[in-house]
Amino acid sequence: MIAPVAVFDLDGTLVDSAPDIHAALDRLMARLGLPPFSRAEVIGMIGDGVRVLVERALAARGRCFDPEALASFSADYTARAAEATTLFPGIPEALAMLEAAGWRLAVCTNKPAAATAALLGALGLEGRFAAVGGGDSFPTRKPDPGHLLGTLAAAGGEPGRAVMVGDHRNDIQAARGACLPGIFVAWGYGAPTMAEGAAALAATPEELPRLLPALLGQGLA
Asked: CB within 8 A of 24, min separation 6: which ones?
């Protein structure tokens, strides 16, 4: 039987990356001679990929999108993506329990693949996942289900034996479009309204080893 696959979003789900994204955006603003952001402003911009992040940041300061600003931010953030980013408490234990129960792990994120690889490597997670689908790994990205399905196929899984876990409406919409259950996590950056359509809600990472098997109608060994 094909092993079940747990597909995780990255920012706001596995890792608290807002501090480093915030710092990189403020460095970009400083280079452009513009005011910095509050943490709440930055969190509201996260979830739709780096281009949209920079677009939103520039628009908030009355500027049009600038490809050079995007390139500057991307290079700077990739080089310093893990200075203050950490795994959310309880995530290492949840991943270990799922692995012990025979689950494969995968990441499907709108963060560019290079920055994702740098971050996972810095956090000691390189090689931990059967597949990592970045925002530029496929022709589409979340909420398009093609991004999730491509990541799942790369992990050797299939929709009937997989669950998507994320903190953003993009994760839940991608899961619904791919015809697999989606778990909305309450500890991330997404507003509670983004949970609409989720198959389950997780208040803490400790709930994941129970919720994922339940959604596939199996118990956790």
From this structure: 73, 76, 77, 80
